Amino acid sequence: ACCGSIQTIVEKAGAKHIFDDQGVEGVKTWDSVSWDTIAERDPDLIVLVDASWDMADEKIFHLCSNEHTRKLRAVQNRAFLVVPFSASTLGVRIGALAYNLAEAMSALIRGEALPSLQFSVTSITADGSIGSSQAVGKSGVRAFEKLPMWNGTDLDELCPGSSTPIEIRDDIPLAALSESDSGGGNSLALGLGLGGLALVFLGLAIFYVQKSQQMEKELNNLKMKEGATDA
Q1: Smallest Cα–Cα separation from 155: which of 36, 68, 74, 56?
Q2: pTM of the model
Q3: Rounded to whole angstroms, how far apart are CA atoms 161 and 71?
Q4: Is the pLDDT confidence value at 145 over 80?
Q5: 218 in helix, strand or coil?
Q6: Contact criterion met (CB below 8 Å) for 33 and 19
Q7: To 10 degrees, what angle do helices 4-12 and 94-110 make?
Q8: Which residues contact 36 (CB under 8 A, 6 or more apart)?
Q9: Each residue of 147-196: pLDDT tens digit?
Q10: For 183, what's the count of Cα atoms within 13 Å in the CB-facing half-sphere?
């Protein structure tokens, strides 16, 4: 519906929720709508929340089995993204989730490669078993190269259309700079170090001058007092 953590995550990921006008009066996080309404709005992509009591794979089964939802653009293109329920609730994980969702959406809709620093391809499913090949983000976002099995049904055969090929691009960590960049960094560090050393010496020099002036002033005061006493 219109509000809550799900809406926040979708907005921060740069997407538009097709039901952002739903439940506004009651400020609802979740709401119910008819299949006909979903078909009318025809989303480009479907994000499925995965929980042990409400599995995302089962939701894909129903989306591909229902006569209304089978015709949806997202189902025809198999544009499914799965997020763990624990990451979808308000907390410290929603920032990473929104970031990974934005990347995964671009991969499914535009065919862009996913960054290797955030995603990896695995066949290990959420429950630890061996399943279909999928890209998994650090936040737990999953995108399928091939749809999984559910309750004995091969979803890859059941669902219409075909999955978008998922590519992982090799990203270089910031720490792994080239030799030339490293040399420049060392020069910069050396320059900053020498600059800091110069500031230290300058500070010591100023302190020495101030201290000398203070001692000279005290000595003159002392001489003036001695002169007054002799007089």
Answers
A1: 56
A2: 0.69
A3: 10
A4: yes
A5: helix
A6: yes
A7: 50
A8: 68
A9: 989 999 999 999 999 888 889 998 866 555 555 455 544 443 434 343 44
A10: 3
